[in-house]
TrEMBL record:
Chain's role: Acetyltransferase implicated in the O-acetylation of Nod factors.
Source organism (scientific name): Variovorax guangxiensis
Example GO molecular function: O-acyltransferase activity
Protein name in the entry: Nodulation protein L
Pfam families: Hexapep, Mac
Family listed: Belongs to the transferase hexapeptide repeat family.
Signal peptide region: none
InterPro entries: Hexapep, Hexapep_transf_CS, Hexapeptide_acetyltransf, Mac_dom, Trimer_LpxA-like_sf
Amino acid sequence: MTQDNRTQKQKMLAGDLYDAGDPEIQADLAATREWLVRYNASLGDTSEARRALLAERFAAVGKGTGIRPPFHCDYGFNIRLGEGVFLNFNCVILDVVEVTIGDKTQIAPGVQILTADHPRSPEVRASGLEFGRPIHIGRNVWIGGGAIILPGVTIGDDALIGAGSVVMRDVPAGATVVGNPARVLPPRPPQA
């Protein structure tokens, strides 16, 4: 058996089992909490000032992108936002691994995007180890209020996610999904 010499943070970023109590990971979480205090106090600031704050912590922030506070995330440095992305009040992104959101995607209030996952084995889960699976959201997606996007999901371009939906599986480009678990609706004629 080979020894794994990676740090816990390297394991986390790779989507492998890691110890979230590791001091380096805890330091990153503390730094993000301090940043979130500043960001969530910025509601009265200009959109440009808020975007500058996002750029301090996020991996990428496209032109014209905005998030209305309050907002919550684990780290921030695993989040990539395209151009013209909009997240409304009270969104949560648990970004233990990469979260990408494509250009012009609109996300309603109270949406949760959750990459963090836990082992299914009770013995491994009791050890405190966790892992993550990346989430990729395409371009021009609309996610309705209170929807939950679970670990490992990819949502294709131009998809619609109904309010309150729990998305457990990949969503094809152009599809509309609703419900818990979210299911694809039959195609409808285009309307305004």
